[in-house]
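Hi V.,

You were right to ask for the full record rather than a summary. Here it is.
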Amino acid sequence: MKYSLGRYVYGLATFGSGICALVWHNYDALPVVPHRGILIYIVAIIEILAGVAVLWAKTARAGAVALGAIYFFFTLLGVPLIIKHPLVYNNFGNFFEQFSYVSGALILYACSATNSPARTSRLAQFGYYSFGICVVSFALEQLFYLSATASLVPKWIPLGQMFWAIATTIAFALAAIALLTGVMALLAARLNTAMLVGFLLLVWLPALFANPHSFVNWSESLETLAIAASAWIAADFLGRRRSAEFAHASLG
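Predicted structure:
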């Protein structure tokens, strides 16, 4: 994935997340644990260095490993809350948000490999389908918290807040079906990426400009950017695979 734009966005998003954690000395995904302050510094520094590493092709795999490990750690931290409150979907939503970053890192790692093409192809496929499952969760989370989702839609957008909350929930559901079945998957992956970028531009950036001193606004903006980057990486993976299939068919 040498020329993947998704890779650059992923690197910038994770770099920004590390900077945000250092400035506010906080991580939403990190619960209150012993020595939390020291742990925040360690994770943030690794995240910053790994985010920079992802920006260069020669170090992208190392960066993907480090980021995948960090986000998998954050994903596992969500399991106790799911077990304790299995009827609260927000806990599942947080789990799959973190796991979407892991999926992006898996695809990035696999597509940056120069050897063992069969093994890396299987790993990339696993990352891709994992991201597809995360998109299912995005749809369910919006469905269960439809009013809260609608409240985030800017009031100036035509057709109303609830209309767009329902429309984007349906869009996530259709994207998940396409990604997991392979039917119009590339188009769905690209449209899903565009929608997530739209969330960033229309919802979180205005909030960030309105209150640039808010940790929540920075955190949510960077989380949305990271999810969009993972979606972009999945779309780039599909595009690369489609190009390889066309090339193979042409040679045949």
